[in-house]
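thread from #wetlab-drylab

HS: before we spend reagent money on co-crystallization trials with 6-chloro-9H-purine, can we at least see a predicted complex? here's what I'd submit
DV: go for it
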Amino acid sequence: SDLAAFAFGLPKAELHLHLEGTLEPELKFELAARNGIQLAQTSVEEVRATYDFTDLTSFLAVYYPAMEVLQTADDFHDLAWAYLLRAKEQGVVHAEMFFDPQAHTSRVVPFSAVIGGYRRAAVRAQDELGISAELILCFLRDFSAEFAMATLMEALEYKQWIVGVGLDSDERDNPPSKFAAVFARAKSEGFFLTMHCDIDQVGSIDNIGEVLRDIRVDRIDHGTNIVEDPALVALAKERGLGFTCCPVSNSFVTEQMKADEIVTLLREGVRVTVNSDDPAYFGAYVAENYVALAAQAGLDEADLAQLAINSFEASWLTPARRDAYV
Ligand code: ES4
Ligand code: ZN
């Protein structure tokens, strides 16, 4: 449709994208063969059949084991490069990409292989695709704060390759406060801060208050249930805080896209953005998320253009580079 063509053509930043969530079944087989790994499935269709999630827990139970095929710097490069090629087709001109080093170092893959491969793809994207690509180191919240701090220390050697830090995985029983010291240290090292505040989890609105008031993040991933607390919405708006929403992902890990919440915040002038989260698993890259949200919520071209403007304003580009896009 015309609106879909408009959505694809809009220059946009993608701010909520897990590189490990871009592993398409075809590449999974290629990497498995390269590394001599025998997969439980024998065809792309069989792999896709396992992408049948009802909630975050059932998603993560498929997501982490799939990473076994990622072993060398070349593997990480190939994964990120495949994503960046897709991103180019989706109108992405700037990407801030999450990676989960602990999902690899915990199975004895060196940190240097992970970040070395990803960084090589990011540099290549600038040179060959004209996409500026940055890395955000995400801590896994179901591991200990000590492991997170050790990972941060290991990352300092690569500081110039990392724009910020985030927090993902299972939020239940792993509130932001568990990582307060890690994020305070990351901030003092000059990293931007963001955290997943997932939806539909008990106590989630309290976590949003905590990340805004105490940890003082620069952005929130998901977090659209902030609409439950008008005072927090007012605070987020005053700070110009970005929210990285992922409608198609929401429809997998909850029962719906959360379109009402996203559009409520958009209409109130809060910096909500649209992103793909784990596109290989949820079957939609970023422009397809714009289209899905537009179809669900009846958005028009002006709304989609505002979402794209928000994506640059909520990005961690330097002010001069950001202003070149908006
Ligand atoms: C994730 Cl959908 C989702 N939620 C939490 N952590 C994640 N890591 C990758 N995808
Ligand atoms: Zn995410």
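DV: The two ends are 25 Å apart (CA to CA).
HS: ok that's useful, forwarding to the group
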